[in-house]
Structures are given as C-alpha cells and as structure tokens.
Write a structure and sequence with these properties.
The protein contains 14 helices and 19 strands. By secondary structure, the chain is of the alpha/beta class. It folds into two domains: about 230 residues, P-loop containing nucleotide triphosphate hydrolases (Rossmann fold, 3-Layer(aba) Sandwich), CATH 3.40.50.300; about 190 residues, Nucleotidyltransferase, domain 5 (2-Layer Sandwich), CATH 3.30.420.280. The longest helix is centred in the first third of the chain and has 19 residues. It starts with a helix and ends in an 8-residue tail after the last helix.
C-alpha cells in the first residue's frame, strides 16, 4: 500500500523500527495520561491517521483482551477508519489479521509470534472490534480494555454511554477524535466538564494548520469564504453556535451565570407536576415538569427514554413513581394531534389526566418552548442529559447557501424534545405580571 503524504509525515521506518513524527497537537494527545482523551481539531488535522497508533500503544501497554475502534457511520468506517487501521496493524506493524466477516482485527500473540485463532470464533490473544456507531448493539457487545472513537462528535449520546459501560470493569482508556459539529453531549458532557476541572478528561484542541501537511493558503481561503461559526468549528476546532440551531435561545450555562441549567434540588411536594410523553415502540421519552406557582417558573427535573414495553408497562412505571414520591401530576401530554389512539391506550391502561393537545403543528409548539426560554421561565436539571444534548443539536437543514430552511434535520431522532414540545404546548399561558409581582415581594430569588 502506498502511503499518503500525511502518513509519510506521521511515521518513518528506520531499519526494523517505526518512528512517529507527531506534530504539536498529536504530541499533546500522545503525552496525556488521563482516562478520556479527546482530540477536537480542524478538518485534516491528522486525527484519523493518528488513532490507530494510539490504539496500538494502548494494546502494547494493557495486553491481552478486547479493544474497540469505532466511527460514526458505516461509510466513514469503510472509507476512512478501516483502511487506516489495516494499514497500521497489517502493513506497517505486521501484528494484525482482519476477520472481515465478524469485523474483528486479531492481534498476534507477542510471546509466540503467531496468530492464535484458526477461525474467527476461536480465542485470540487480543482483538480489536471494528464497528460504526450506527451498528445496532455493536457497541454493547463486549467488555473492553480500551478504545478509539473516530468522529465521536457525530455519535448519539446513547452510543457514548454504551462505550462507557463496556469500559467499566477494566477502567479502560478512550481516545476520541473529531471535528466539533454541534453543541450537544460532546460539548456539555466532555468539554464543559474538562473546563470545570474533571481529572479524568483531557481535551486537546488545535486548528487544521497545526498539521504541517495542511496548506496555509487553503486555511486562509476558507477563513475568507466561510461563515465565521462554520470556519471556527470545521477548521479551527472550536465550539460555536451553528446556523439553524432551533433553540438558540437556550443558554448552556447555570442559572446563576445567566443560563437555563440548574443543579438538582428537592422539588417541593406541593408544586404541581406535568408530564410529557413522546410515544413509540422502540423509543418512548417521558419528561416530568414541576411548576413553581409563586414565581411562575417551570423546571424539567426528570427524563427517561426506553422502549420495547407495552403501554400498560409504561403506565405502571409512571404510577409506581407517583406512589413512591407522592407527586401530584395534573395533566399528561402525549403525542401530536394525530396520535389520538396512543392517548386512548394510555387512558385505558389507567393513566389519568391525559389531555388532547390544543396545538396542531410543530412550529407552534416550538414557539411556546422558545417563549419560555426567552422569558427565563423554563429551567432544566443538569441530570437531564438527554434533553440537554438535544437542545444543543436540534437544528434546521441548511440550503446550498448555508441558510436555514424550514425542514428540521433528522427530526425523527429527537424524542426528548418532541416530548418537551408536547408538554409545554399543553401548558396554560399565565399572566407574565405574576413574575414581576413575585420579584417585588421577594418571593423569586432568580436561582430556585
């Protein structure tokens, strides 16, 4: 296989040794000792070509067992990740053997110098499970000792959580490589925690031109021709608010800093509650909203997403929760106008307070959520990470000129925000003067 210019920059073979020539950004990643290391960099910054080398070192250090190398989509896996992995492990290091049918890379036993397996299901000294985040169950199938996740900024939150679970027993390390794409879980659960001093997380950011192989002229041309936000994300490796973000009025910071997030507190039992459900056989989202009636402020304090349950089982979960907590749920808002049968099913299963929606279109529901955000009357517990993730990625499709259209990108996957929209659209609009009166009486402190 003929090496690309980027590969020639990254390594050289000296006799029977391989010498890595890492640029400054890659060196910082290589030297990091933390458990979760994220290389967030501009396009063509040397992310995908670096990943197999980091994974090779991890296998050298941790020894026999299972590892994972995954990317966001099957196309990215086939066109980018797999060729890089095979080039490093088979062509350069000569320690890997690819079992294509099972998507597994067998690692040669260093003690015998041989591959242990006769067929793909035989025990192996070590193996790298090669997957895409789109593969159903593909990230849930093994206990792993370490992994490399390419284009991790495109992964759904559930995929990242699946990898974390697979690493739990070994307390293994992960390298995440990506360009920033939105303000979802990667920004909220990784970047923000790193900024706050999480000792397990390291974030290394650099621009495309940190890679010496990337032309400065191209970088400068892109700076001049692209919208600023897009250039900073795709070539600068920085998080920015993208065009078309639907809930751009949501401020991803804590309330005391002028944002819409709050740390969990014990919700007073006398506060009325409201429930929202996005029904579905595979993904059913349930959201719980509490109302501080004095300040006329709402708090999203609980969320869940599960499936493969009957309506009766979902209702039992809800009623068991209410019985345990003593919460007073006034109404339940389930589905859009056309989903009358689903509401009938929930009523028949014993859920009381199910009401029909008075808003028939998506945009009107979105407008009501935006209204509460602008008025700072909707706050979200920071434990509702699914809703927060989707707040940062829910966006409209862009046209050829990069301008937002009316269409919502990947609309079908936003179950939390659909449930929130049904819920908020069903709330009765209240006199805004109550908030002013509450402030004047000292009953609203701007934090609770």
């Amino acid at each position: 296989m003929i090496a690309t210019s980027e590969r020639r920059e990254l390594f050289q073979i000296v006799g029977d040794k391989v010498r890595l020539n890492l640029h400054a950004g890659q060196t910082r990643v290589w030297d990091s000792k933390r458990r979760f290391v994220f290389m967030i960099a501009g396009t063509q910054g040397g992310k995908t070509s670096f990943g197999p080398w980091w994974l090779w070192r991890e296998i050298e250090q941790c020894g026999s067992g299972d590892y994972i190398a995954a990317t966001a989509t099957y196309d990215l896996f086939k066109l980018k990740m797999l060729p890089e992995v095979l080039h490093v492990f088979e062509d350069i290091l000569h320690i890997g053997r690819y079992w294509a049918g099972d998507g597994v890379l067998e690692i040669r036993n260093p003690e015998t110098g041989e591959f242990d397996a006769r067929k793909s299901t035989d025990p192996m000294y070590a193996r790298v499970i090669l997957r895409s985040a789109q593969t159903k169950g593909g990230l849930e199938s093994a206990t792993i000792k370490g992994g490399w996740l390419d284009e991790v900024g495109l992964y759904p939150l559930l995929a990242w959580e699946a990898v974390r679970r697979r690493l739990s027993l070994s307390r293994g390390r992960v390298l995440g490589t990506t360009t920033p794409y939105n303000l979802g879980w990667l920004k909220q659960q990784v970047y923000d925690r790193w900024r706050a001093g999480d000792p397990d997380i390291d974030v290394i950011q650099f621009t495309s031109v940190t890679n010496p192989a990337f032309p400065q002229e191209e970088f400068d041309d892109m700076r001049q021709s692209m919208p600023g936000w897009k250039f900073m994300m795709f070539y600068g490796g920085q998080f920015e608010k993208p065009a078309g973000l639907i809930y751009s009025d949501f401020i991803d910071d804590y309330r005391e800093n002028g944002g819409h997030k709050v740390r969990p507190f014990v919700v007073p039992v006398e506060w009325p509650r409201y429930g929202g459900i996005d029904p579905g056989g595979v993904n059913t989202a349930k959201l719980w909203l509490a109302h501080d009636t004095i300040a006329d402020v709402y708090y999203l304090y609980r969320e869940s997403l599960d499936g493969n349950k009957s309506t009766k089982q979902h209702v039992k979960d809800i009623l068991d929760r209410i019985k345990l907590t003593g919460e007073r749920v006034i109404t339940w808002h389930i589905g859009q106008k056309s989903e009358g049968q689903q509401r009938m099913d929930y009523r028949a299963a014993g859920l009381t307070g199910v009401v029909d929606p008075d808003v028939t279109d998506v945009e009107s529901g979105i407008d009501r959520v935006i209204e509460l955000l602008k008025d700072f009357r909707l706050f979200i517990f920071d434990t509702c990470i699914g809703t927060l993730d989707q707040m940062g990625s829910y966006a409209r499709e862009l046209d050829d000129m990069g301008e937002p259209t009316e269409a919502i990108k990947d609309k079908a996957k936003y179950h939390y925000l659909d449930g929130l929209r049904y819920l908020v659209a069903g709330l009765k609009r209240r006199n805004q003067g109550r908030v002013v009166q509450a402030r004047a009486k000292g009953l609203w402190d701007g934090r609770r």
